[in-house]
Amino acid sequence: MALNENRFFKPEQMTTQAAFDGLPAQVVILTNRFGMSISIMDIGATWLSCIVPVNGYRRDVLLGSADMKAHQQQTAYFGATVGRFANRIAGAKFTIAGTEYRLVANEGNNTLHGGKQNFSHRRWTIVAQSTQSVTLSLQSADGEQGFPGTVEASVTYTLTDDNEVHINYQAISDKTTALSLTNHAYFNLAGEHTQRTALEHDLVIHASHYLKNGAGNIPTGEIVDVTGTGFDFRQLKRIGIDFMRDECQKAANGYDHAFILDKQKIADKASIATVIAPEGELKMDVFTTMPSIQFYTGNFLAQSKGKTRRYGNYSGLALETQYFPDGPNHPEWGENQGILAANTPWHSQTIYKFYQ
Question: Any residues with CB less than 8 A from the CB of 63 and at least 6 apart, and which?
C-alpha cells in the first residue's frame, strides 16, 4: 500500500522544540530533478529523511525521531554523524606513541561513538549549501572526551540526479589522534512507516572475513573467515535466514559486527554492499573508501519513538562504513586502525545509491 504523503514525517517538526542549547535546530532539504529528497539537520549533522520515488509514489526509507524531544531521548544515533571515533573503544583508553589517553566511557567501561558528548550531540555549523548539497563543519577541542588534538571536521551531503546520496568527510588534527567518522542511518526500504523488518530484506556484503566480538561487543582481535557461518553474505541472502545462528550473534541480539571489505571492490569504486526491499521493488547499493562496514540489525530499537510509529527491534538496518572497531588498541591492524597523523588531511567518502 502506498504511503499517503500527509502521513510523512516533515523535517520542520525538528525545529518546533529547542535543541540542547536552547535554540531551534536548522534543517536543510536537498532535492533532485527526479523527485528524490533528503533532509539534513545541524544537530549532529544528522540525516533526517530520505524520500525516494517508488512506482510513482514517494517513500521515506530512513528511520528517525518524531521531534526534537524524542531525538534527544533516543540512544540509537538515528542518522547522526558519529565521532570522534565510530564504534567501540575497549576500556575507554588507547595509547599513541607511548602516551595513554583515557576517554569518557559511555557504554559500561567502554567508549561508544566517541563518548558522552560525541559529535552526534553537537551543533554543527552550516558553511555552504545549494539545492543539492550542504556542508557542515565542527571543531573538536584538544582533550574533548579524552581524545588528543584539536580536530577540524566537515561533512558534505550531496544528492545527485542519479538518486545517489554522497557523504564526504574531511578532517585534520594538530596532534596525532584516533579518528573514524561515519553516518548512523537506519534503512527500511519497505518504508519507515511499515511493519516490515530488517530481517525481511535481502543483502550482499562483499566481505570474506569479519571481526569476531567478545564481551561488550568489543572485537577479540580474531579475524574470522565467513565461510560456513551466518556472516556469509557474499551471495544475495535474506537477512533472517541465518539470523541468530552464531554464538556471537546471540550475544549481540543480532548482527552488530564489522565486515572487512573486499579491497579490490573499494579500489574499483564498485559497490561493497547491496540491500533489496522485501518485495524487491527498491534497491540500495553502498560504495565506500573505508575498509570495513558495521552491519547492525537494530537489535535494541524496541519502543523508540519513531517518525510515524514506535519501532520494534529490527525495524531497520545500519551499514556504517568505518575503520575497524577498537582499532586504536590494535596496532597489528595497521592502516585499518583509524589513527590520524598530526597535520595530515583526511578524507573519506560513502555513497548510498537508490534504484528500482
Answer: 76, 78, 79, 185, 186, 187, 188, 192, 298, 301, 306, 307, 311, 315, 316
The listed range with the strongest mean pLDDT (5-9, 142-146, 249-253) is 142-146
Which residue among the candidates 113, 201, 320, 330 is catalytic per the annotation?
Answer: 320
Q: How far apart are CA 135 and CA 128, in angstroms?
A: 5
CA angle (326, 136, 288) in 5-degree steps: 50
Instruction: Give the cell for residue 140.
Output: 573538536
Strand partners of residue 100: 95
Residues whose CB falls within 8 Å of the CB of residue 276, separated by 6 or more in sequence, listed in order: 189, 201, 202, 203, 236, 282, 283, 284
207-254 confidence digits (pLDDT tens): 999 999 999 999 999 999 999 999 999 999 999 999 999 998 999 999
| CA separation, residue 39 to residues 30, 79, 271 (Å) | 6, 10, 24
Nearest alpha-carbon partner for 51 in 187, 167, 183, 201: 187
Q: Which three cell numbers stand for residue 188?
A: 527500511
Which residue, chain included where needed, has cell 584538544? 142
Is 281 marked active-site? no
Q: How many CB atoms lie within 10 A of CB 99?
A: 10
Residue of 113, 184, 209, 257 marked catalytic = 184
| Structure-block grid coordinates of residue 163 | 538518486
Using CA atoms, how far residue 338 sits from 119, 268, 323, in Å, is 16, 22, 5
Residue 300 — φ and ψ, nearest 5°?
-135, 40
DSSP for residue 329: G
**pTM for the structure as a whole:** 0.97
Query: Which residues pair with residue 165 across a beta bridge?
Result: 159, 352
Give the span between the Cα atoms of 354 and 202, in whole angstroms.
15
Which is it for strands 125-129 and 133-140: parallel, antiparallel or unpaired?
A: antiparallel
- H or E element at residue 101: strand 99-102
Q: Which helix (H) or strand (E) holds 49?
A: strand 46-54
Q: Please write the tens of the pLDDT for every residue from 195-207.
A: 999 999 999 999 9
320 labelled catalytic: yes
